[in-house]
Design brief:
Elements: E1 2-6, E2 13-17, E3 23-27, H1 30-36, E4 41-46, E5 51-55, E6 59-62, E7 67-71, E8 78-83, E9 89-92, E10 106-108
Parallel strand pairs: 3-10
Antiparallel strand pairs: 1-2, 2-5, 3-4, 4-9, 6-7, 7-8, 8-9
Length: about 140
C-alpha cells in the first residue's frame, strides 16, 4: 500500500510503499530521544527503493557513524533516517498522513528505555536494535 507523509510545514513530502508484515518499531535509544525531544520514537523501516521524497529537500545531520537523520530545514520536523550501509530507511510514523495505518510491531533498544516510560503491550522487545529487513 502506498502511504504519503511529510513535515509539519509541508515543505517536505514523501511516498512510501508499506507491507502488511513490515517492521515498525518503538525506538528507546538515547539518540532518538534527544533528536525528537520525546521519550520514544516510532519508526517504519523500509528498503530504500520503497521510499521517495516527492517535494522539497531535507537537511541532513550525521548523528553517528551508522545513522544519518533527515529533517525539514524550515520547521525542524525529523522526517526520516538512513543507515550507513544504505540498507534501510526509517520513517517517523508521526509524519505519515494516516499515522493510524501503520502500527508498531516491536520495541528496539529496550535496554535504554526510560524507567518511567513503559508501554503495556505484548510486542517483542529487543535490548538492542530490532530486525530491520522487512523483505528478502
Amino acid at each position: 500500500m502506498v502511504q504519503t507523509g511529510g513535515c509539519l510545514c509541508g515543505q517536505i513530502r514523501y511516498e512510501v510503499t508499506t507491507l502488511a508484515d513490515g517492521v515498525a518499531d518503538y525506538c528507546h535509544c538515547t539518540q532518538c530521544r534527544r533528536a525528537s525531544g520525546a521519550p520514544v520514537v516510532a519508526w517504519l523501516q523500509v528498503k530504500p527503493q520503497r521510499f521517495a521524497v516527492t517535494r522539497g529537500e531535507a537537511r541532513v545531520y550525521d548523528s553517528s557513524s551508522s545513522a544519518t537523520r533527515w529533517f525539514c530545514g524550515q520547521c525542524g520536523s525529523p522526517v526520516y533516517m538512513t543507515d550507513a550501509g544504505g540498507n534501510s530507511i526509517g520513517i517517523t510514523l508521526g509524519t505519515l498522513d494516516d499515522a493510524n495505518a501503520v502500527h508498531p510491531t516491536v520495541h528496539g533498544w529496550d535496554a535504554k528505555r526510560l524507567e518511567w516510560f513503559d508501554l503495556h503491550d505484548d510486542l517483542p522487545r529487543f535490548a538492542g536494535p530490532p530486525p530491520y529487513d522487512d523483505e528478502p
